[in-house]
Design goal:
By secondary structure, this protein is mostly beta strands. It contains one helix and 23 strands. The strands form six sheets. Strands 13, 15, 16, 19, 20 and 21 form a six-stranded mixed β-sheet that branches. The longest helix has 27 residues. This is Junctional adhesion molecule A. It is a single-pass type I membrane protein. It is found in: Cell junction, Tight junction; Cell membrane.
Length: about 280
């Protein structure tokens, strides 16, 4: 009998979902009586695996915290990293007979306090996305939203209290999307994480304000920009008229200097060391 872990987002152990399942290849068969095992963290876990039709099965070794037996394996103490799918494989020494079965192990961990990202303001008529997540829950948490302490239904149009709002929410990802935002959407929003184990955990309440597009403010900003640009152009024109951009320097004359080396003269003659002309 052997066991191997298959990679996934988390390391999990999985068997089939029936009460008693088996898979037989050749004349051997492998069975599990509990294909879906759920155990709290730091508790022992037993993954059952039995077989028939094998003359001499070969059990490989595993970690020190796991005990092997002819009826399966037992974890002395599971952690959240042990969540995953495990496969029990049995074969005889000749390799002519082979069988396997899988068991799902879910290590139960309560959710932690979720983190939310909620805009403080949103423009009416635009799209706004609110997000919620937590990283500890096993199995993964589902997310529920509240507005001003009132649970938000999946379909706002089917609830009179939320019929004026247009949104969609995804319990798996924790996204709450307003498309479009309405004036009614102003309020305090809270997210709650639940995974069926331990107490549900709720985030802090964050207020989102739905506001009209400030057309007057935009027009005023454009006017101020145009006025400043006009002053800049006027200043450049004034400097040009005053001659600040005229680079011509008046009242200066060019000078020419000529240097020449003295010719060789005999002794006694006058020697000119240098000459120049200005």
């Amino acid at each position: 009998m052997g066991t191997e872990a298959r990679a996934g987002r988390r390391q999990l152990l999985v068997f089939t979902s029936v009460v008693l399942s088996s898979l037989a290849l050749g004349r051997g068969a492998v069975y599990t009586s509990e294909p879906d095992v759920r155990v709290p963290e730091d508790k022992p876990a037993k993954l059952s695996c039995s077989y028939s039709g094998f003359s001499n099965p070969r059990p490989p070794s595993y970690a020190d915290r796991v005990t092997f037996s002819h009826s399966g394996i037992t974890f002395h103490s599971v952690t959240r990293k042990d969540t995953g799918t495990y496969t029990c494989m049995v074969s005889d020494e000749g390799g002519n007979t082979y069988g396997e079965v899988s068991v799902q192990l879910t290590v139960l961990v309560p959710p932690s306090k979720p983190t939310v990202h909620i805009p403080s303001s949103a423009t009416i008529g635009s799209r706004a996305v609110l997000t919620c997540s937590e990283k500890d829950g096993s199995p993964p948490s589902e997310y529920y939203w509240f507005k001003d302490g009132v649970p938000m239904p999946s379909d706002p149009k089917g609830n009179r209290a939320f019929s004026n709002s247009s949104y969609s929410l995804n319990k798996k990802t924790g996204e709450l999307v307003f498309d479009p935002v309405s004036a009614w959407d102003t309020g305090k929003y809270t997210c709650e994480a639940r995974n069926g184990y331990g107490m549900p955990m709720r985030s802090e309440a964050v207020r989102m304000e739905a506001a009209e597009l400030n057309v007057g403010g935009i027009v005023a900003a454009v006017l101020v920009t145009l006025i400043l640009l006009g002053f800049l152009i006027l200043g450049i024109w004034f400097a040009y008229r005053r001659g600040y951009f005229d680079r011509t320097k008046k009242g200066t004359s060019s000078k020419k200097v000529i240097y020449s080396q003295p010719a060789a003269r005999s002794e006694g003659e006058f020697r000119q060391t240098s000459s120049f002309l200005v």
